[in-house]
Design brief:
By secondary structure, the chain is of the alpha/beta class. It contains five helices and 18 strands. About 0% of the residues have low confidence.
């Protein structure tokens, strides 16, 4: 068995937990590698146990049976972006705050690793969003995908973004706002929730269109089917916007450009040690009574 580790390099607890995992996996006869190089604002992670072999992001998923992330949901998303196209399942160890994507808590780590290596794990597919950013002339500037959300955000602090939002080829609304989010059901508990969007079960195939701080009386989230393309056009003669997928690798979008988003993209495979009780998870994470 070969397992890859993705570690939040700026968090001591994440590095320590990854070292603990590397030692245990090595004792269980598992080959261990670690993703070398992290987010732009972090130093590359170091394997303090001296066991895991560092590999580049491009080769990380090669031959893996499983990837394990150590951090919060941001670290899990990084692991997902390393593993999706190779169909490698990802298991999250939560060392962040909420951690909706990361299933295993730190105090459950040893037991979870034993179960994974001895009894295996279940796989839960989560569809992604397929995204294209176009310039004012229609040329494709960038393509990408998102497990949680696509965000279109303003660059001029003192100005709003003026956007034409189309759903399934129909102009739905002209939206003046600080930003606009198109989220999956999986991402409903992330950026979309903080902007006032609904909590949606990951079993519901849907896309959520959520305006952020809209300057209009209509400030509701629109829930669209995954095969209804969302097209967001940046109205001409304004400051550029920034488009990002899961908060990664932002692309500048000039006025007159547009973004298209479709759901039901290639799934990220979430590894599960136990069956997911989504509503219990929400209740526990938010301290609901």
């Amino acid at each position: 068995m070969k397992i890859g580790l993705v570690v939040h390099a700026g968090r001591d607890a994440s590095i320590a937990a990854a070292a603990q995992a590397a030692r245990l996996l090595d004792d269980l006869g598992v080959s261990v590698v670690v993703a070398d190089g992290a987010a732009d604002d972090e130093a590359p992670p170091v394997d303090p146990a001296g066991i895991a072999t560092p590999v580049s992001a491009e080769r990380f998923a090669d031959g893996l049976d499983l990837a394990i992330s150590f951090g919060g949901d941001g670290t899990f998303l990084r692991a997902a972006h390393l593993c999706r196209d190779a169909d490698v399942p990802v298991l999250g160890v939560n060392l962040g705050r909420l951690g909706f994507l990361a299933e295993v808590e730190h105090d459950e780590l040893t037991q979870a690793l034993r179960e994974v290596t001895e009894a295996g794990f279940e796989v839960e597919p989560r569809p992604t969003l397929e995204v294209r950013a176009h310039g004012p002339d229609g040329a494709v500037l960038a393509t990408g995908w998102a497990l949680n959300e696509v965000a279109l955000e303003k660059t001029a602090r003192q100005r709003l973004l003026l956007m034409d939002v189309h759903v399934a080829d129909t102009l739905f609304a002209k939206v003046p706002a600080d930003a606009l989010i198109v989220a999956t059901s999986t991402g409903s508990t992330a950026y979309a929730l903080s902007a006032g969007g609904p909590i949606v079960s990951p079993r519901v195939p849907a896309m959520l269109v959520v305006p952020v701080a809209p300057h209009t009386l209509f400030d509701r989230t629109v829930v669209a089917a995954v095969d209804e393309e969302i097209r967001v056009e940046l109205v001409a003669e304004q400051a550029p916007a920034v488009v990002s997928c899961d908060g990664r690798q932002p692309v500048v979008l000039e006025a007159g450009g547009y973004v298209t988003v479709r759901g039901d993209g290639r799934a990220v495979r979430l590894a599960r040690v136990d069956a997911l009780d989504f509503y219990e998870l929400v209740r526990r994470k938010f301290g609901l009574r």
